[in-house]
Amino acid sequence: MKTFIRVVELWVPDRTRMRLEFGGGLYGEGLSAFKAVSEDLRFGYDEGLPGKAWASGHPVILTKFANSYFKRTDQALAAGLTCGVAVPVFSGEFLQAVMVLFCGDDEAHVGAIELWHNDPDSSHEMGLVDGYYGTADMFEFNSRHTRFPRGFGLPGRTWKAGLPLIIKDLHNARSFL
Question: Which of 77, 43, 84, 49 is nearest to 63 (CA)?
């Protein structure tokens, strides 16, 4: 069974803490070739998707692999992967790992992944930084034209809680705008 998130990888600092090396991953059906390429890679600071997240200190979304800093474009496209999100995990100022999620979509597997942020110098609301929506065009339109105050909608509720939140059955959830 295919899901919207098709690959999860963990990249960890090597013993010198100068590069990221493959720390493990979960790969959907038919992605063994992509896994084999990943296992042999290393990323420096600000290099490739994991290195960009390390350097920026916050999650990074890459909605198109072609003509970008992404290192495995041909293999990702061959595997049906269409988007990547890298999330750095820090302990204080020390990077512990970078988690990378790869998504794939088609007509039968619609999904979305979004990054939201508040800049307190310019607004009291949270706005969309970027997102990947595959074939969910109307959802994308609504997301790109919506802002959330603290405590409202899933982004605003998560912001207020200061913790990840999960809403089950989004279609019937009153708290999901």
Answer: 84
